[in-house]
Amino acid sequence: MNPVNYLQILQLAAPALRNLPPAALAPFLDTLDELVHADGRISTFEFALQKILTRTLALGADFPGAFAGVDEVVLAPVYAASEAPLAGGTSDDLARLFEKNNVTHVLKVDSLEAAWFHLRKILQRDDVLLVVGAGDVEKIAFWAKEFYGEKI
């Protein structure tokens, strides 16, 4: 099979894998780990496959619960890190997960700049700003430090 087709198959399988109950997900990811390490070598594809699956499947359902009790969640777009976006891994999908888990006050924005524009308007003295994500999301922390000075 052409290796290009592997990711297409993964995209087709992702919705079904995402619906696995936690009791089935853990053994699936354990088996995946055993298969990746079975021959004593890890190919680039095996490494990428394992990272994609563990990051998108293992965290998905539990991710919103980590934000229970916060005043507001601002969701910026999710950008793929040099791979095609997986079904269920967009900011719209995250917003639905937050809603399903009763995390209120979720604002979806179109860019990091829009997130920072919003945050700059609402942050007050003694607020805590938690920036979670990957890639360029760290820009928000730098912008906050620049805007508020060394007080943060």
Brief account:
The protein is mainly alpha-helical and 152 residues long. It has six helices and two strands.
Number of helices: 6
CATH homologous superfamily grouping of the largest domain: Mur ligase, C-terminal domain
Strand order of the largest sheet: 1-2
Q: What percent of residues adopt helix (DSSP H or I)?
A: 40-55%
* Unreliable runs: none
Roughly how many Å is the radius of gyration? 18 Å
The string of secondary-structure elements, in order, is: HHHEHEHH
Briefly note the CATH topology name of the largest domain. Protein-Tyrosine Phosphatase, Chain A
Structure class: mainly alpha
Shape: elongated
CATH class of the largest domain: Alpha Beta
Count the strands? Answer: 2
Strand content: under 5%
Instruction: Count structural domains.
Output: 2
**Biggest sheet overview:** 2 strands, parallel
End-to-end Cα distance: 53 Å
Q: Tell me which CATH architecture of the largest domain applies here.
A: Alpha-Beta Complex
Q: How would you explain this protein's 3D organization?
A:
- With 152 residues, the chain is mostly helical.
- It has 2 domains: 55 residues; 82 residues, Mur ligase, C-terminal domain (Protein-Tyrosine Phosphatase, Chain A), CATH 3.90.190.20.
- Helix content is 51%, strand content 4%.
- The chain contains 6 helices and 2 strands; from the N terminus they run αααβαβαα.
- The chain has a two-stranded parallel sheet with strand order 1-2.
- The chain is elongated.
- The N and C termini lie far apart (53 Å).
- The model has no long low-confidence stretch (mean pLDDT 78).
